[in-house]
């Protein structure tokens, strides 16, 4: 890392080599090639801007907490019209990396680590964290203003159209039970 914390996009951070005496700032700014690659990986039309900055904070002698901010502008196709939808993302990112990560289920009392806790990696790729957070923050069903999804029904003639109720769990079992009862009469 440089003195201002600027870290190259794919660089790995070896947490065990960092001094636990103070926090270590980082700032990632990907190249346009990095953003194209990320868009392709995440199924986005494009990633226009992205910055990921924050700090690695020592917790005790061996654990670390990442606190950062992810800022990005992404373009995705609208789920209804396929027109491009641009979304601005500003996400707070917090993750804990624990040297003694408990996944031992045989104990009576299981110590559940925080939701954002992970085992301490040998090398941490901040770009991977940024990409995971971007995937979580990008809208699942982006829509152009005012676009509605059309409700389409496909039905064979003489059969009932399928409703939302039919797609619920057990609806197919109920239909099968009803059919068996009818056939048995």
Automatic annotation (TrEMBL):
Residues 157-168, 175-185 have a biased composition (Basic and acidic residues). It comes from Celeribacter halophilus. It holds the Pfam family YceD. This is Uncharacterized metal-binding protein YceD, DUF177 family. Residues 156-185 are annotated as: Disordered. InterPro entries: YceD.
């Amino acid at each position: 890392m440089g003195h201002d914390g600027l870290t190259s996009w794919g660089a790995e951070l070896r947490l065990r080599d960092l001094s636990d005496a103070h926090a270590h700032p980082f700032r990632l700014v990907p190249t346009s090639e990095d953003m194209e690659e990320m868009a392709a990986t995440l199924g986005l039309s494009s990633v226009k801007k992205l910055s990921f900055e924050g700090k690695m904070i020592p917790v005790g002698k061996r654990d670390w907490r990442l606190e950062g901010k992810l800022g990005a502008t992404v373009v995705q196709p609208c789920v209804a019209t396929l027109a491009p939808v641009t979304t601005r993302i500003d996400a707070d990112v917090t993750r804990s990396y624990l040297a003694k990560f408990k996944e031992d289920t045989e104990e009576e009392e299981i110590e559940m680590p925080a939701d954002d806790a992970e085992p301490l990696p040998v090398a941490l790729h901040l770009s991977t964290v940024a990409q995971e957070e971007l995937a979580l923050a990008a809208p699942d069903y982006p829509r152009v203003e005012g676009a509605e999804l059309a409700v389409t029904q496909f039905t064979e003639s003489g059969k009932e159209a399928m409703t939302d109720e039919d797609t619920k769990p057990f609806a197919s079992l109920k239909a099968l039970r009803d059919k068996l009862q009818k056939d048995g009469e």
